[in-house]
User: Fold this.
Amino acid sequence: QVQLVESGGGLVQAGGSLGLSCAASGRTFSSYAMGWFRQAPGKEREFVAAISWSGSSTYYADSVKGRFTISRDNYKNTVYLQMNSLKPEDTAIYYCAGSPTFYSGSYYYEYDYWGQGTQVTVSS
Assistant:
C-alpha cells in the first residue's frame, strides 16, 4: 500500500515557474513507477509525465515537453514535477500517481495509487 500527498501548488503568472512535490509512504516506493496527471474544470484527467522506478526513464505529454521536468528521490520517497514557462492552459488540479511496475505510461488505469491533488493556477 502506498499513500501519496502532493504539495507545492499555487498561483503563478504566465511564464513563471512552480515546483510540485509528492511524498509517498510505504517501503515499496522505490519499486514503483510514478506519474503526474492533471484535470482542468470540465475536462478529463490527462497525463502529464511519468518516471521509471529508478528515475532513468522519463516520459512526457507533448503539451509539456521541454517545459516540465519529472524527477524522484527514492531516499526521500518523493517525486517532483518542476514546471517552467507556465501557460494559462496549464491551470488544473495536479495529481501524483503510483504504478506497481518498473515502468509506466500515460494511461490512468496503469496507476493504482493516487494523491488528493494540488491546485495550480496560471494567470495571464
